[in-house]
């Protein structure tokens, strides 16, 4: 289950354990309200995330676009080493802040 | 080891594919990262067939076999959908910001990166996608 939390001026999206072909559309819908705000400062907290398919990467791509258009901020935190490798392989880590989970 | 599974061209069938890959991982004693990567590869390629190989609403089946000689694990994905060679898809330019790239198109790129070898054949009206991965411990 996706959770959206507000902390000061920041919006934190806490993901569930999986973003895959079956639930990606629901995840995209869950985070939609967070992308409407002006001057958004977004953090996608992946503490619970153990698996992400390319359908999840597409949503990150779209989120990057939305944030760029509104000149906001967006970072991904607490990513597992395995998912970090997939984000690196597809060129995300070069263009946005992706913080790995502390062991 | 040789195993096979047949699933319908429905998204809900991806769970069966994940179980299939997990059983193989357990049997071969693969580590967590390899397990996740193989799950990812099969989800990407099977969902590709589910979404694009057949006309909407058409019922069809998709076959997946896995075979290991102890050193290399070979998956063959086969369907009777329209001819489609995913290996022809141009590689992503990972030096371009994802926000400026076309949305999507990452599935096959991930598969090519994770697997050691990916080849396509069109044989007797079937798409055959062979994906090989070294599994040295």
Could you explain how this protein is built, in words?
The complex is a heterodimer of chains A (103) and B (137). Chain A has 103 residues and is of the alpha/beta class. Chain A has 3 helices and 7 strands; from the N terminus they run βββαββαβαβ. Chain A has one domain: STAS domain (Transcription Regulator spoIIAA), CATH 3.30.750. Chain A has helices at residues 24-31, 54-69, 81-89; strands spanning 3-7, 10-14, 18-19, 41-45, 51-52, 73-79, 97-100. In chain A, the strands form 2 sheets. Chain A has a 5-stranded mixed beta sheet with strand order 1-2-4-6-7. Chain A starts with a strand and ends with a strand. Chain B has 137 residues and is an alpha+beta fold. Chain B has a single domain, classed as Histidine kinase-like ATPase, C-terminal domain (Heat Shock Protein 90), CATH 3.30.565. Chain B has a 5-stranded antiparallel beta sheet with strand order 1-2-3-5-4, covered by helices on one side. In chain B, strand 4 (117-123) and strand 5 (126-134) form a beta hairpin. The longest helix of chain B is centred in the first third of the chain and has 21 residues, at 32-52. Chain A binds chain B through residues 20-22, 50-51, 53-55, 57-58, 60-62, 64-65, 68, 81-82, 85-86, 89-92, 94-95, and chain B through 11-12, 14-15, 32-33, 36-37, 39-40, 43-44, 47, 92-99, 101, 103-104, 106-107, 109-110, 113.
- CATH domain fold name of chain A: Transcription Regulator spoIIAA
Oligomer: heterodimer
Strand count of chain A: 7
Rounded to the nearest angstrom, the radius of gyration of chain B is 15 Å
The stretches of 5 or more residues of chain A where confidence is low (pLDDT under 50) are: none
List the helices and strands and how they pair.
The complex is a heterodimer of chains A (103) and B (137).
Chain A: E1 3-7, E2 10-14, E3 18-19, H1 24-31, E4 41-45, E5 51-52, H2 54-69, E6 73-79, H3 81-89, E7 97-100
Parallel strand pairs in A: 2-4, 3-5, 4-6, 6-7
Antiparallel strand pairs in A: 1-2
Chain B: E1 2-8, H1 14-28, H2 32-52, E2 61-68, E3 72-79, H3 107-114, E4 117-123, E5 126-134
Antiparallel strand pairs in B: 1-2, 2-3, 3-5, 4-5
Helix pairs in contact in B: 1-2, 2-3
